[in-house]
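Structure in, sequence out. Go:
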């Protein structure tokens, strides 16, 4: 028996029909060169034989003294959790994304362990897909990525590899430094200790400095400044998932031309896509949109681009900032430069803070957003409009039972008053975008993929002009 911590309890409490609280991932694989046509069916049979289920996938919810706890499920039905399915013809990426959209809309049965693995055949010519979803109370996004990577191999000849539910050993859920979510930041702030109380002077000083700067400069990222938009209304339970890969080489060329980081450029791509999407709906606010963006705060950045990477080492720091997206700026290059400046100012603000001070500062700045998302009682407290998150992925090619991983796309959470989540990861020279949104609130969400490409092209053209 294992009690749930306050943050994980919150994910359960937030869940309702229109607001499933699970995260997911979509991986697309190519058959091994020597594989027979029934390779996926044989793989499914092999996976069904992996009846061993290791933590945390062997846990289901129970209650002790009116508090939720995890208990071992001794009657786990693997057929319920692992499903072998086929796309309807013609089996294009469109049908695959529709499949993920539908499955990600469904709540999971709380009487069973809160996870599902879908093996999907019929994805184009000699390709298949794996869609995994896990409740956020059981696994966070960073841990899910680590588990997925441990399931894969750099060796294309390796066979009989276990599925994600049967990995005998794995790192602890909160091992290392991960990107703090809004809820993790708030929960961390509530932990009253001498170390926490010691951060109050620095946090208060920086918070007042932020507010005073905002009074003098209307474009400064500050509290309560995000405009009202269609992104921030109540949503339905129906989801639309859109995914696309973009060349990291192209993005780094833009970084070099503008003196920006990868995170700056992908944030600018998202800003451009949001601007075009909302303009076409005649719904672009006059004031610029604001995004909640986890960013790397390492004092000694080992990579040339300064982006968040895998393999967190001691001393790494990741903080959450509120990034002005400057969607009121029509020039893509100028928009990128302003975004870069704003993110750099936020990093400079954190430069002299300890890890505890950073988390507590983040919690205080996000507290109004948390209150509004939880209750809807403070519509003027729109701290941010959208989440843009970068989850580190593997740099080299990966294989699973000889099948080459062609792409991996994160599938995150949309919520009431936060109808769009833009999550991306890096893999083998690509940046993989996964967009999840409310199907009714944000019609034709898949067009955002075109607008992301248009935003990158605009920056490329500005770089050579």
């Amino acid at each position: 028996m294992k009690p749930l911590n306050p943050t994980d309890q919150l994910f359960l409490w937030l869940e309702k029909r229109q607001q499933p609280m699970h995260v997911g991932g979509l991986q697309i694989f190519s058959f091994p060169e020597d594989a027979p046509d029934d390779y996926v069916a044989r793989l499914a049979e092999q996976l069904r034989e992996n009846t061993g289920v290791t933590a945390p996938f062997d846990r289901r919810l129970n209650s002790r003294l009116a508090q939720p706890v995890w208990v071992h499920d001794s009657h786990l039905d693997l057929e319920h959790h692992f499903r072998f399915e086929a796309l309807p013809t013609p089996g294009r990426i469109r049908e695959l994304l529709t499949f993920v959209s539908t499955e990600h809309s469904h709540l999971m049965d709380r009487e069973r362990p809160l996870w599902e693995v879908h093996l999907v055949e019929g994805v184009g010519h000699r390709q298949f897909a794996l869609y995994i979803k896990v409740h956020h109370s059981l696994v966070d996004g960073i841990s899910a990525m680590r588990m997925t990577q441990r399931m894969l191999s750099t060796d294309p000849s390796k066979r009989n590899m276990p599925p994600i539910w049967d990995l005998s050993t794995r790192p602890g859920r909160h091992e290392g430094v991960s990107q703090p979510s809004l809820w993790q930041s708030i929960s961390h702030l509530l932990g009253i200790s001498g170390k926490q109380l010691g951060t109050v002077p620095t946090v208060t000083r920086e918070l007042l400095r932020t507010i005073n700067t905002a009074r003098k400069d209307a474009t400064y990222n500050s509290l309560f400044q995000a405009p009202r938009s269609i992104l921030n209304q109540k949503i339905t339970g129906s989801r639309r998932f859109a995914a696309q890969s973009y060349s990291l080489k192209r993005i780094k060329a833009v970084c070099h031309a503008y003196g920006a980081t990868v995170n700056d450029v992908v944030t600018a791509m998202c800003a451009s896509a949001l601007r075009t999407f909302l303009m076409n709906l005649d719904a672009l606010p006059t004031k610029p949109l604001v995004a909640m963006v986890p960013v790397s705060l390492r004092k000694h950045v080992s990579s040339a681009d300064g982006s968040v990477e895998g393999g967190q080492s001691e001393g790494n720091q990741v903080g959450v900032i509120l990034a002005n997206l400057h969607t009121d700026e029509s020039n893509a290059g100028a928009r990128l430069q302003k975004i870069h400046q704003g993110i750099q100012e936020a990093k400079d603000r954190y430069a002299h803070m300890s890890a505890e001070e950073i988390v507590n500062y983040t919690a205080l700045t996000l507290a109004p957003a948390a209150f509004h998302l939880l209750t809807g009682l403070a519509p003027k407290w729109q701290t941010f409009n959208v989440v843009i998150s970068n989850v580190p992925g593997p740099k080299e090619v990966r294989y699973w039972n000889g099948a080459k991983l062609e792409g991996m796309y994160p599938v995150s959470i949309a919520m009431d008053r936060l109808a769009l989540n833009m999550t991306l990861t890096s893999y083998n020279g690509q940046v993989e975008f996964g967009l999840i949104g409310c199907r009714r609130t944000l019609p034709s969400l898949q067009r955002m993929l075109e607008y992301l490409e248009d935003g990158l092209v605009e920056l490329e053209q500005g770089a050579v002009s």
